[in-house]
Amino acid sequence: MKSTMIGMTAAALLAAAPVLAQDVTPQGDRKQDRVRDPDAARPHVPQQDRTREQDATRAHVHEALHDALMEHAGMPETRPAMPGRDVARAASEHGALVREAAATRAAHRHAAQHGAASGTTGTPGAAGPGARHGTMSGGDGAGAGDCGEAAGMTRTMEMHRGTMGGDGTGTGDGSGTGGEMTPGGGMGPGGSTR
Amino acid sequence: MLDLGTALLVGLTLAAGGAGPEAQLLAGAEHFRAERYADALVAFRVAERLGAPDARPYAGAALVKLGRAEEAIEAFGEEPAGGRDALLDYYRAVACHDARLYLCADRILAGIGDRSGPRIAEQAGRMRARIAAMLANEPETATVDWYLGRCAALGKAGRRVLAAAFCRESAALAARRGDRYRLEEATAAIAPLENAAAAREVP
User: Which of chain A's residues have a Cβ under 8 Å away from the Cβ of B65?
Assistant: First the structure.
C-alpha cells in the first residue's frame, strides 16, 4: 500500500516536470534546479559575473529607452489657454445672442406697429416723405417720420456684430436723414423706424 | 487606468510568455523610436506586469505621445519629492501641460533645471515663458470653478491621483487671485484625495 503511494507520487512528479520524465538519471536533480531557476541554466557563471551582466543589460535597456524618448521629446502642440475663459466667453456670447434676438423681436414689433420697414440695402439718408411714421430703408438707417424709439435697439444689435450702425434723425414733419454706416457693418432687421 | 484594447494586448502578450521585462522594455523603446506609440505602450505595460516597476513612467511617455494626457498623469503617479530622470520629468510636464494643468507643468519644468541637456532645457524654458505669459493676468473665477469642477468629477469617478492634481491646480490659481476665490475649498479637497491615492498605491 505504502509503496503504491510512493510510486504514484513519483509518477505525478514526473508528469508535472516533463524534462525530468525524459531523464531519470542522477542528473535529474540538477535539471530540476534549472527548471526552478532559469539563471541556474548557466551553471558556470559565478554570481559576481552574473550581476555584472545584469547591470550591463539594464544599462543597455536604459540607454535605448533614453535615446527613444529623447528623439521624440517635442514641445506641446497646443498653446496654453485657461479653460474657464472659454466658458466665460461662451456664456457672454450666448448672452449677446439672447439680447440680439430680443432686440430683433422688439424692432419687428415696432416696425409692424408704426409702418413698413425694409431691412435690406442701405440707401443713404433720403428725405422722408412726410408721413407720420414713414418708411425707411435698410441698414444705414435712412428714414423719415417721427418714430425714433427703435433706433437704440438697432444700434444694440449692430454693436454685437462688431460695428456701429448709424442712427437716423427724424423730425416731426416727417423729414429725416440717415445715419452713417461704418464699413463691414451688419444690417439691422427692420432698421430704425423714424 | 488601462483601456480595453491595451489591456487585451497586454494579456495576450503575457500569455504568449517568453520574453522577460528587459526584453519588453527594449521592444517598447524600439516601438517608441519608430513612433508606434500604441505598441510601445503595450510593451511597457507588459514589462511592468513582469516585474519592472520602472516601466510605468515610460508607459506615461507613450500615453503623452498618444494624446492621452490625463491617463499619462496617472501612469506617472504622484510627483516624487526629489525628481528623477530629467527626460521623464519633461514628459510628465508635457502631460500636465496637455491636460491644462499649467502650474503643475511649470513646477516640474522649474525642477528640471540643469539636470537635462541643452535641448530639453531650451524647450522647458520656452514652455515656461508661454505659461508665464498666459498667467500674467489674474485668473478668472470661471477658471477656478472649472478646475474645481473637474476635480470633483474625477474624484467621484475614483481617479484620485488626477483629481488631486486638478484640485492642486485650482488652489494654486485661487491663490493668485486677490480675493482668494474658493481657495479654502480647493485646499481642503486635496488632502483626502492624496491620502486615498497613496493608500491605493500601497500593496
Answer: 72
